[in-house]
Amino acid sequence: MSALFTLFFIALCFPQEVMFKRGEIIDSIPVVGTTNNTFALYLPKKYDPFEPSVVIFIFNPGARGKTGIKPFLASAEKHNYILVCSNNAKNGPYETNFKIANHLFSYIFSIFNINERRIYVSGFSSGARLATAIAVSSESIQGVVGCGAGFGGLPYVPTPQSKFSYVGLVGDRDMNYQEMIEIKTWLHSQPIKGGGLYI
Q1: Contact predicate 144/164, CB 8 Å
Q2: Would the pTM of this model clear 0.90, i.e. be above it?
Q3: What residue ranges of the chain have pLDDT lower than 50?
Q4: Which residues have CB under 8 Å from 123's CB, separation 6+?
Q5: Residue 145: which domain range?
């Protein structure tokens, strides 16, 4: 998993700005260097290519990039975040999704001026599990927003050495509601800084 972030930080040193419209979701942008990987992108209206940007990588269990981005639009505008969601990473083996994420991260950091201290990951259901797995496997992620699923039973679980913040969100009718309650209890029982759950 270390290669996941090694590649995109090499690319970080040589960003080459590609022009995209601001203030609207652009879907199915090809990931250069792959055969058929694409992603959805949202640049806030106040996006400035000359300022290092905050980025949130989002993972949707059905590999629907535009759907994954929509819930974050208001926050992206308020806080001036770039939103990126893969159209290929989906409910499936971690190794396959790690490779897809690797290519996506590498490409994004090659074309945008990203603040390397403000990299976040998020996801829905199994996408939330993938986001946590990426953060656990790297020292480069600042925070995780897990929506509707946590990390119960995963081989990738936060430890006291983990350096990222974790926030979980779940509805009281969600099928993973009880799992998220158990994760909240577990987080509060561990010597881990931060961590919250919103219901």
Answers
A1: yes
A2: no
A3: 1-3, 7, 10-11, 14, 194-199
A4: 58, 59, 60, 61, 68, 129, 130, 131, 146, 147, 149
A5: 2-198
